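step=encode ok
step=design start
structure_in=
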C-alpha cells in the first residue's frame, strides 16, 4: 500500500463513492505516473483522511479508507519573516516534510520581499506536493502574509517562542521540556528582528530562544527550529 502513488483531492471532488478528477489530475495520473484504468492509487484529502482508489477514466472509484499515522503529536505554527528571493519555497517544502501544521508568513520591519498574490498560491501548491511526498495526512495551512506585529498580537497559543540569533537566551531544547499540544515559533529575516519587534513579541507572551551559537540563515533557522521540536516530541 505504501508504494502506491498519492495525490491530494479537494473535498468537493468526493461524490457518492467516486472521485471526480480534474483535467490536471487525469493528466498527472495517466501521463506522468502512467497509471491505467483499474490501477490503484491513494487519494488524500489533506485534512487527515486517505482512501485507496481505483482509476476509471475521468474519475476514480473509492475502495476503502486507509489508516495513516504520520502526524506529530503537537500542532506547530511557524511564523516566518519572509526571506528574500524564493527562499520561502524551501522553508515551506522542508517544514511541511518535518510536520508543521501551519505556516504564517510575516512582514517584519526588515523584510525585503513584497510577495505578489500568486506567491500564496505557489506556496500552497508546494505544501500540497511536499505533504504528498512525505506521506502526511494533513496539508499544512499557509496563511496570508500579515505584518509581524499583527501576527504576534493576534496569537494566543500558550507556548510561544521567538528565535533570536544574538543575546543570552535559553536554547530552544531547554525550554521545550514540557511540550504541550500547541507551539508557535517565530524566525526572523536576513537582517534579524528589530529591538522593537523583540519587545513587542515579549509583551505579547513570546519567549526569546536561541538555536545555538552559530548565526543561521533566515531559510535555515525555521528548518532547524522544526527539527529540534520534532526530535523532542516524537520519541
Ligand atoms: N542579521 C542578524 C544578526 O546578525 O544578528 C541575523 C539574522 S539571521 C540570518 C535570521 C533569523 O534566523 C534571526 O532573526 C533568527 O530568528 C534566526 N536565527 C538565526 N540564527 C539563530 C540562532 N543561533 N539562534 C536563534 N535564532 C537564530
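sequence_out=
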Amino acid at each position: 500500500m505504501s508504494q502506491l502513488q498519492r495525490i491530494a483531492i479537494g473535498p468537493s471532488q468526493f461524490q457518492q463513492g467516486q472521485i471526480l478528477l480534474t483535467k490536471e489530475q487525469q493528466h498527472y495520473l495517466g501521463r506522468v505516473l502512467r497509471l491505467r484504468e483499474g490501477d490503484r492509487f491513494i487519494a488524500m484529502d489533506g485534512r487527515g483522511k486517505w482512501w485507496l482508489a481505483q482509476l476509471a477514466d475521468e474519475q476514480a472509484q473509492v475502495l476503502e479508507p486507509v489508516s495513516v499515522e504520520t502526524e506529530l503529536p503537537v500542532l506547530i505554527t511557524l511564523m516566518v519573516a519572509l526571506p528574500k528571493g524564493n527562499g520561502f519555497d524551501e522553508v515551506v517544502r522542508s517544514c511541511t516534510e518535518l510536520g508543521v501544521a501551519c505556516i504564517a508568513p510575516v512582514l517584519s520591519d526588515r523584510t525585503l520581499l513584497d510577495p505578489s498574490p500568486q506567491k500564496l498560491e505557489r506556496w500552497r501548491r508546494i505544501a500540497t506536493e511536499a505533504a504528498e511526498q512525505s506521506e502526511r495526512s494533513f496539508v499544512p495551512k499557509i496563511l496570508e502574509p500579515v505584518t509581524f506585529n499583527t501576527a504576534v498580537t493576534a496569537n494566543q497559543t500558550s507556548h510561544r517562542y521567538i528565535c533570536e540569533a544574538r543575546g543570552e537566551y535559553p536554547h530552544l531544547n531547554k525550554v521545550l521540556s514540557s511540550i504541550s499540544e500547541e507551539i508557535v515559533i517565530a524566525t526572523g529575516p536576513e537582517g534579524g528582528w528589530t529591538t522593537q519587534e523583540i519587545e513587542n513579541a515579549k509583551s505579547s507572551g513570546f519567549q526569546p530562544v536561541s538555536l545555538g551559537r552559530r548565526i543561521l540563515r533566515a531559510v535555515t533557522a525555521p528548518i532547524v527550529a522544526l527539527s529540534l521540536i520534532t526530535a523532542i516530541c516524537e520519541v
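step=design ok
step=annotate ok -> The pocket of S-adenosylmethionine is lined by residues 163-166, 187-188, 190-193, 210-212, 214-218, 221 (CB under 6 Å).
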